[in-house]
Amino acid sequence: MIGGLFIYNHKGEVLISRVYRDDIGSQIADSALFSSSSLRHSPVDAFRVNVIHARQQVRSPVTNIARTSFFHVKRSNIWLAAVTKQNVNAAMVFEFLYKMCDVMAAYFGKISEENIKNNFVLIYELLDEILDFGYPQNSETGALKTFITQQGIKSQTKEEQSQITSQVTGQIGWRREGIKYRRNELFLDVLESVNLLMSPQGQVLSAHVSGRVVMKSYLSGMPECKFGMNDKIVIEKQGKGTADETSKSGKQSIAIDDCTFHQCVRLSKFDSERSISFIPPDGEFELMRYRTTKDIILPFRVIPLVREVGRTKLEVKVVIKSNFKPSLLAQKIEVRIPTPLNTSGVQVICMKGKAKYKASENAIVWKIKRMAGMKESQISAEIELLPTNDKKKWARPPISMNFEVPFAPSGLKVRYLKVFEPKLNYSDHDVIKWVRYIGRSGIYETRC
Amino acid sequence: MPYLGSEDLVKELKKALCNPHIQADRLRYRNVIQRVIRHMTQGLDMSGVFMEMVKASATVDIVQKKLVYLYMCTYAPLKPDLALLAINTLCKDCSDPNPMVRGLALRSMCSLRMPGVQEYIQQPILNGLRDKASYVRRVAVLGCAKMHNLHGDSEVDGALVNELYSLLRDQDPIVVVNCLRSLEEILKQEGGVVINKPIAHHLLNRMSKLDQWGQAEVLNFLLRYQPRSEEELFDILNLLDSFLKSSSPSVVMGATKLFLILAKKFPHVQTDVLVRVKGPLLAACSSESRELCFAALCHVRQILHSLPGHFSSHYKKFFCSYSEPHYIKLQKVEVLCELVNDENVQQVLEELRGYCTDVSADFSQAAIFAIGGIARTYTDQCVQILTELLGLRQEHITTVVVQTFRDLVWLCPQCTEAVCQALPGCEENIQDSEGKQALIWLLGVHGERIPNAPYVLEDFVENVKSETFPAVKMELLTALLRLFLSRPAECQDMLGRLLYYCIEEEKDMAVRDRGLFYYRLLLVGIDEVKRILCSPKSDPSLGLLEDPAERPVNSWASDFNTLVPVYGRARWATISKCQGAKHHGPELPNTASFATSGTLIPEENKETIQELPDSGALMLVPNLQLTAEYFEKTWLSLKVAHQQVLPWQGAVHADTLQMALQVVNIQTIAMSRAGARPWKAYLSAQDDTGCLFLTELLLEPENSEIQITVKQNEARMETLNSFISVLETVIGTIGNIKS
C-alpha cells in the first residue's frame, strides 16, 4: 500500500502532497504542510536533497531514506514520488505511478509544472478517487469520468446519478451501458518502436520491435469485437487445409515473441483459439502490446566511417540507406553524430537535408524532412580538434537516429476487425474503420 | 514568497470567505476556497480559517464540498474542537440521496484523524456497509480499517469482522478486495485475514473480474492458502495459468510468486514456471518504462542465483544502450556477469570491454568489477582484457583494475604470474586511496616476483609526508615489512626510514601504533616476524563465501515480488526493523555464523591447529593443487588403507565442513549437493614428505553415521594414524556443532 504521494518540480518544491497513512511519519505530513522550519528534517525533504538535487546520476528509482521507500518516476522535469514504509511490490507501485500519469494526461494533456499548478484541484480529486487509505481503487479513465466533477457547478441531474449507480454495480468495469453514437466509427493505430544496436561492422547486436495496438472506439451499445492479424501461429493453423496458401502467406506472417492485452480481451479464448475478442471500452485504449525480435525490417542502415587525421583533425563520413518500398516516405529523419569534447570547428557537406554542428550537445545534427525508400544519402564532415594534453581517448559514443515511417517494421498487418452488436440495429458493414501504421525509432544506435 | 507573510494572507482570505457577496456568487466563493487549498499545499499554515471553511461545507455544490473536506482532513488534528462542528454536516451528507455525496462524506469523516471521532463514525460506517451503492460500500469497508487504526490497540469488534467476512461475497469486485485489505489490517495482531478453502475458491473464481490492482493483491493473499491435496493444488495452478501472461507486470510477478510458493515441493513445476515467465520478464526488461525495467532486472538477477543458465541464450537483451539511464546500465552489467557461460563468454567480455571506456567513470568501474567477477571462472581471458585496460593509462580505470587484481590474486592464485607482469608502470596512474592500497598490498605480498617492487615502494616512502590517507600509510608499513622478509637487501634502508617517520613524526595514532608494533616485533627476531606476517597468499575457498553456489528456489521464493530483490537481501535486513528470522529461508545456512568461522576460527578448531605440529609430526602442505582427474586416477589405482565409522547427526553443511578442512590443510576435491542421499565427499591432502592421503566421506542419514575411507600412496602407518586423528577431530567438532 502507498503511504503518500508527492509531486515535485525540478527545483524540488512540493507541488502536490497527499498523505494517506500516518505510518510514513507524521513529520512528513506536518512539515510538508505546516511549518517551514521543520521541513529541513523530514524524509520528503531528504528525498529532495538525496535524489532531486543529487550531483551524480540517479542510482536507483527506489530510494530508501530513514526506513521509508521512495519510488519515483520522472516525466519531463516533474518528479512523482510514492512513499511507503511497507514491504510492497515494486512493479505494482511503478505501474500505479504510470497509471496516474496516464490519467492525468487524459485530463489535462502534458504533465508539466504549469499544467499541474493549474489543475491541482482536479489532481486532488483524482487522488481521492484513485487511492483510498493507500490502496488503489478504480483507475480506468473512462469509469472515473463519472466521479470527477471538475466543472460540475450544479448538483447532478437525475440521469447522471443513475449513471453512477449503473456504473458502480455494472458487471464490466471498463464500459458503461447506454452509449449511443450517430456514426459508429473506430480507429486502429499500430504504433511500433524499433530498437537497434549495431556494431561498426554492420552486424546487428540486438534488435527488437515493441509495438502497441491503440484503438479509439466510438461504437453504440455493447459491441463484441474480433481482431485478426497476421500472427504466424494463426495463419499456420488456418493454412493446414490448403497447403499453397501457407506458402503464399507464410512469408508475410510474423512471429510474436510475447504479447499482452487490455483487461477487456478474453484471454481464455486467446489461449485456446488464439483469437482476440473483446468488448471495447469507450474512447481510446491500448488493445495490445507485443514484442518481436525476428525478421525485423530495419528501415535505415547507417554506415559510419571515422578517420583520425593526425591529432587535430577528424574526418567523418556517414551514409544512410533507406530500406523499404520506394513508394513510401519516411519523415522527421534525424541523425545525431557525436563529436569529441575538444572540437573547435566543423565543416559539413551533405547532399540532402540540413546539418548543423551543435556545440552545446557535442554533436552534428543532420535533419532530413522526407526520404523515399531504397534511397541513400550521405554526409561528410571535417572536425577540427583543439590539441589537448588530456590523454583520455575519445570514447566514441554511438550514432543515433530518429525517424518515422508509415509501416510497421515488425511486418504486422491487421487482417480484420469485426464488430457485432446483436441488440442494436447496426452491422459490421455500417461501422467506419480506419487503420494506420506508424513505425518510430526507439533506441536506434550504430556504434562507430 | 509563500512562506512569508502568511498572517496577512490568512486575514485577507478570512475576510473574503465571510463576505456575503462572495458567498452568494458560487464561482467566486469556490475560487477563494481554491486559493486556501493552494496555499495549504505550498506549506502555509491555513488553519486560521478553519471556522469559515466549516461553514462553507454546508453547500449543495459538490466541487466545493470536496475542496472543503480535503481541507478539513488536513487540519482536523490541529483543531479538534472546531472539527466537531463539521461532523454534523458530514453526518447529514452520509444520508444524502446521491451515492457520490454519501461516499465522499463517509470517506472524509473516516480520514479526520482526531481523538473522539470514533463514536460519531461508527454508525455511518455500519450503514455504509449495507448501502445499496457499491461506491459507498467500498468506502465504508476501508473505513472500518481506518476506524481500527484510530482506536490503536483496542480490541477487535467481532461483529464487524463477521460482517466484513460476509461482504467478501459482494458482487462488486473492488468491495471484495477492499474487504481483504481491511480485514488484514484489523486482524494484524492475529496474523491477518484467514483464507480458508471456501474463501480461496471464491476468490479464485472472481479473479478475472478484478482490475489489475485487485488481481495483484488477491494473488498476494492467496499465498496464505494451503491446498489440502495435490489435486487441488494443480487445479489452482491451472486456473491461474493465464495470469502468468497478464498485461500488467505486477500481476505476472504476483502469479509467479504464488506458483513458486504453492509448488514448493515440486521443483520441476517451479522450473517450468520460471521458463514460462521468461518471455514476460524479458519484455519488461526491454520495455520503455525505465523504472519497471529496473524492477524486472532486479528479479532477473534473483532468478539467476538459482538457475544460472536461465537467461544465457538471451544475453544480448542485456547489452546496454548508450542512452539508457544509469541505474539500468548498472543492473544490466550485473546480470551479464551472472549469466556468462562457455558459449557466450567471448561476446559478453567483448561488450563489457566496450563499457570500460564509457564516459561515466562510475559505469566504467562497474564494468571492470564485472570483468573481475567473471575472471573467477574464466581467468585467462579476463586478465588479458584487464591488462590491456592498464595500457590506456587512465586514472579512474587503472585504480579499479588494480583493485580487481588484488581480489583476483587472492581467489585465483593461478593468475598471480600474469598479474605480476602487468603491474609495473601502473603506479603513475593511481591517485586515490583505494587504488594505492591495492597496489601496495600486491607489491608487498608478491614483491619477490615483481622486479621493481622495492623501487615503487621507495617512491611511496619518499612521499609519505604528503600522503593524506592514514590507511595508505598502514598498508605501506605492512607491505614494506613483508617485502623486507623476501628481499632484505633492497628494503632495509627504506624500512628504517619509514619506521622512523611513522614513530617520530606521524600524527595519526593508528599509524604510529602500527609502526611501533612492527619496530618491537623486529626487535624480537626475524623468525617471529615471519610467523606473524607470512600468512597464506591466497585462499581459493573464500570464493565460495563470496558467491555461494546455486541457491534453491525455495530460499528466495518468499522474497520474490517484494522490495528484497530491489534493495538486496543484506540491505533490506538493515532497513526492516524485524530483520532476521522471517527473511531467512530455512534451507539457507546461517551466513552470520559463517562469517565468524571464516575470520576467527571457532574455539574447537583452534585447538586442532595447535595440536597439529606435535601430533605425530604430521605436516600437511597448504595449497595442494590436485585436479579431479588425477584424484580419480589415483583413487582407483590404490587400495583401501583404513576404514572407519564416526557418529554424525543431521544434514551436512558443506561450506562449514569445507572451511574447517581447509584450516587443517585438507583440500576438498568434490562434494555432492546439499541434501543428496547418500551424501559423498572426496578429500585430498599431502604431507611434507610427499605422501598423499585420499579420503572418501560417505553419509547415510538413516544410520546417522559417517563412513570414512582413506587411501594412501605410500604405506606408512604412523602418518596414516595421525592423519586419521586430524580428520576425526574435524568431523567430530563439525558433527557436534550440528547436534
From TrEMBL, chain A:
GO terms for cellular component: AP-2 adaptor complex; glutamatergic synapse; postsynapse; presynapse. Pfam families: Adap_comp_sub. Residues 183-447 form the MHD domain. It is a peripheral membrane protein. A 1,2-diacyl-sn-glycero-3-phospho-(1D-myo-inositol-3,4,5-trisphosphate) binds at K354, K356, K358, K367, K369. Its main location: membrane. SUPFAM superfamilies: Second domain of Mu2 adaptin subunit (ap50) of ap2 adaptor (SSF49447), SNARE-like (SSF64356). Keywords: Cell membrane, Coated pit, Endocytosis, Lipid-binding, Membrane, Protein transport, Transport. InterPro entries: Adaptor_comp_med_subunit, AP2_Mu_C_sf, AP2_Mu_N, Clathrin_mu, Clathrin_mu_CS, Longin-like_dom_sf, MHD, Mu2_C. PROSITE patterns: CLAT_ADAPTOR_M_1, CLAT_ADAPTOR_M_2, MHD. It is found in: Cell membrane; Membrane, Coated pit. The keyword Transport applies. One of its GO terms (biological process) is synaptic vesicle endocytosis. CDD domains: AP-2_Mu2_Cterm, AP2_Mu_N. One of its GO terms (molecular function) is lipid binding. The keyword Membrane applies. Belongs to the adaptor complexes medium subunit family. Component of the adaptor protein complex 2 (AP-2). Adaptor protein complexes function in protein transport via transport vesicles in different membrane traffic pathways. Adaptor protein complexes are vesicle coat components and appear to be involved in cargo selection and vesicle formation. AP-2 is involved in clathrin-dependent endocytosis in which cargo proteins are incorporated into vesicles surrounded by clathrin (clathrin-coated vesicles, CCVs) which are destined for fusion with the early endosome. This is AP-2 complex subunit mu.
UniProtKB/TrEMBL annotation, chain B:
The keyword Cell membrane does not apply. It is a peripheral membrane protein. One of its GO terms (molecular function) is clathrin binding. Pfam families: Adaptin_N, B2-adapt-app_C. Signal peptide: none annotated. Its main location: Golgi. Keywords: Golgi apparatus, Membrane, Protein transport, Transport. It comes from the Eukaryota. It is found in: Golgi apparatus, trans-Golgi network membrane. Residues 620-732 form the Beta-adaptin appendage C-terminal subdomain domain. GO terms for cellular component: AP-4 adaptor complex; clathrin adaptor complex; cytoplasmic side of trans-Golgi network transport vesicle membrane; cytosol; trans-Golgi network. InterPro entries: AP_beta, AP_complex_bsu_1_2_4, ARM-like, ARM-type_fold, B-adaptin_app_sub_C, Clathrin/coatomer_adapt-like_N, TBP_dom_sf. The keyword Membrane applies. GO terms for biological process: intracellular protein transport; protein localization to somatodendritic compartment; protein targeting; vesicle-mediated transport. Adaptor protein complex 4 (AP-4) is a heterotetramer composed of two large adaptins (epsilon-type subunit AP4E1 and beta-type subunit AP4B1), a medium adaptin (mu-type subunit AP4M1) and a small adaptin (sigma-type AP4S1). Interacts with TEPSIN; this interaction requires the presence of a functional AP-4 complex. Interacts with GRIA2; probably indirect it mediates the somatodendritic localization of GRIA2 in neurons. Belongs to the adaptor complexes large subunit family. PANTHER family: ADAPTOR COMPLEX SUBUNIT BETA FAMILY MEMBER (PTHR11134). Component of the adaptor protein complex 4 (AP-4). Adaptor protein complexes are vesicle coat components involved both in vesicle formation and cargo selection. They control the vesicular transport of proteins in different trafficking pathways. AP-4 forms a non clathrin-associated coat on vesicles departing the trans-Golgi network (TGN) and may be involved in the targeting of proteins from the trans-Golgi network (TGN) to the endosomal-lysosomal system. This is AP complex subunit beta. It comes from Prolemur simus. The gene is AP4B1.
